[in-house]
Amino acid sequence: MYTVLARKYRPQKIDEIRGQDVATTIIRNAILKNKIHHALLLSGPMGTGKTSLARIIAKSLNCKNGPTIDPCNECELCISITKGKNVDVIEIDGASNRKVEDARSIIESIKYPPLSSRYKVYIVDEVHMLTQEAFNALLKTIEEPPNYVKFIFATTALDKVPDTIQSRCQILSLKKVPSEIIAEKLKVISEKEQVAIDTDAIDMIAHFANGSFRVAEGYLDRCINYKGDNITSEDVEKVIGIASFEQIKKYLFFIKEKKLSSALSMIDNLFNNNLNAEFFSQSVINYLLSSDLNLEYKTALLNVYYNVLVDIKHQVDEKIALKIATHKAVSIGDLEKVEKLIEYLSENEPNQIALDSQSAKNIVVKNSVNEGNKTDIKENSMLDFVLREFEGKIISTENIKK
Ligand SMILES: Nc1ncnc2c1ncn2[C@@H]1O[C@H](COP(=O)(O)OP(=O)(O)OP(=O)(O)O)[C@@H](O)[C@H]1O
Ligand SMILES: [Mg+2]
Ligand SMILES: [Zn+2]
After folding, report:
1. Tell me, which fold does domain 5-173 have in CATH?
2. Most buried residue, 101, 210, 239, 315, by CB count within 10 Å?
3. Contact in structure between 382 and 344 (CB atoms under 8 Å)
């Protein structure tokens, strides 16, 4: 049976937890002095080592040689903890056990001392999902549990854990891991798995994993499933949906040339090839940042693609977000022209010509076709154009600025 890499290569010793030196040093010292806090709160982004560290702490406390910073991973206790089958190490998913009744049953079970180990360890994952009532019910127990109980809470959203809980715990912050450190582990894994993979490809995976070992290992899994061996950066691009530099360049060319349908069909094609819209937007942003476009235009474009990232965080459909962004990006120059036109009209022809912004936009769009792709508009010719188009029809009381 194939075990996913993230599980197969889960750290089993504290030394194997990489890139989290502050947290692991604190834990090491606490175990050495046998002063592990009765309620630890591990906070940090996904796939950075919270669950792994929690299980290692449980083993350090309960290993037959323990408490030790070097659990043997061979005794019955260590083995059952690694398998997640130790009766005294209780893993609770906070997301599906969030009610006050769930908290009460924890409190109830705490009364009974451990069956076979030194400590009863409660590992509560995604603890921020508990309801307020559940937190309240737990407060007293967290403050003063029996001396055979340790709590290890884990969360990806520390700010959603009430202060009353935080203040009763020792908080350890795990961080996003630098890509070089992730790359080192990927290299070790690919050697152990006897899979040849280019250094570029490893670096690319590590970069796009954005600080998460789990994500990186998942990408490597997918690359291995896709190609088996001799993995190149082109394979990684395909598998994890990264557009190439050339593609980003071409897309932005369409945007600048206001070729909406070409830009949109490019997006469709990229999505058919598994495009990841978040990476795509990040690449567009990076490209824009180093481009020498005029500052205003560049800022407006940056804003558009930054908003795609925000939309994706808020679960907006990726493809739709990117298509809307493409529309916005293509019309940026036009919007500017519309504003200029409206401003011009309101200054020079007050009370004479009124025009809602949609009609103004249509005029500008038509006019910019006539004018090619110049960024300056010739106000006079534009006004002539407006008058010609709307002869006799456009005197109205609508607020021009609106
Ligand atoms: N600091 C680390 N050093 C080495 N490998 C790690 C580290 N963090 C995570 N991993 C790898 O990623 C996998 C998942 O890690 P883990 O379950 O500990 O993350 P987590 O922080 O609990 O994530 P989540 O918030 O998604 O539950 C591990 O099995 C391991 O392969
Ligand atoms: Mg976890
Ligand atoms: Zn052991």
Report:
1. Rossmann fold (3.40.50)
2. 239
3. yes
Residue closest via CA to ligand 1's atom 18 equals 49
| CA 53 to centroid of ligand 1, rounded, Å | 8
Distance CA 269, CA 323 (A): 12
User: Tell me: the pLDDT tens digits for 374-389?
Assistant: 434 444 455 555 555 4
pLDDT in tens, 307-318: 999 999 898 889
Given ligand 1 and candidates 8, 9, 52, which is best to mutate, with the most ligand atoms within 8 Å of its CB?
Answer: 52
Ligand 1 geometric centre to CA of 219 (Å): 14
Q: Which two tokens stand for residue 369?
A: 């076709």
Give the chain's end-to-end CA distance (angstroms, integer): 65
Amino acid symbol at 375 = T
Q: What is the DSSP string of 262-284?
A: HHHHHHHHHHHTT--HHHHHHHH
pLDDT higher at 22 or 320: 22
**What are the structural domain ranges in the chain?**
5-173, 179-240, 244-402
Test site for ligand 1: of 5, 24, 48, most ligand atoms within 8 A of the Cβ:
48
Say if residue 270's pLDDT is above 70: yes
pLDDT of residue 47: 96
Kindly state the tokens that stand for 228: 């088996």
What's the Rg (C-alpha) of the chain? 29
Specify the CATH architecture of the domain 179-240: Orthogonal Bundle (1.10)
Q: Is 46 in the pocket of ligand 1 (CB under 6 A)?
A: yes
